[in-house]
Amino acid sequence: MNNNDNSNIDGNIDGNIDNNSNSKGSSESKISGMFNWYGAYMGRGRFGRARFITHAALIAAVYAALTIWLAPISFGQQQLRVAEALAILPAFTPAAIPGLFIGCALANTVSFMGIPDLIFGSFATLISAQLTYMIAQRVKGRGAVLQAVLLPMPAVLINTVVIGAMLSIMLSIPLWAAALGVMAGQTLSCYGLGVPLMFLMRGFKYYAHPHKRRGDGSFDTNK
Question: Where are the alpha helices (DSSP H) in the chain?
Answer without folding.
Answer: 3-34, 48-69, 71-74, 96-107, 115-116, 122-139, 144-150, 153-171, 175-187, 194-202, 205-208
